[in-house]
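Limitations

Structures in this collection are predictions, not experimental determinations, and the ligand pose is part of the prediction. Treat each record accordingly. The example that follows, with zinc ion as the small molecule, is included so readers can see exactly what is and is not provided: the inputs are given verbatim, and the output is the predicted complex.
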Amino acid sequence: MKTIKPEIPAAGIMKTSDYGDSKYYRISCQCGQPSDDIILNVDVDDHGITVHTWTTVKTCWWKERFNTFDSIHNPLIYTLKRIANDAINRTTVIWQVLTKGYIEMEAWTMMDKQQALNFAHTLETAIADVDQFRNDRKTKETPTLLKPDNVDEVLTDTYKV
Ligand SMILES: [Zn+2]
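Predicted complex:
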């Protein structure tokens, strides 16, 4: 099997914002539908790394509820069938909310192997980058008075056992 490597720039991955400690990407679906895209945010704060994703989750709005009239190729019948089908699907969703309190939804983003690897690599490097940025900033913010050049020596002497 041919080994694939993450690409730079990465196909299917677009960096949209970079604030050092917070980076945003758009991972596009290969079908071209923007609502299938994943918006990825990798963020670091005092509690650690947060990976936040946004996408449009969907109900099974597309589900065919009945196959009656399939043999009749009439545009009017087709339109009426679509309207009835959509009405049933939407009512089913409303009914699920009323009776269960939740609805079943799903989201998918189609990627080929290369894009999936780029996605994984983007996440990996973004985590390392924001963490590094945070650590560098903490080091800069620490007052120099608290960091004498001989700090290791002082601590070793103070806490010597
Ligand atoms: Zn798609």
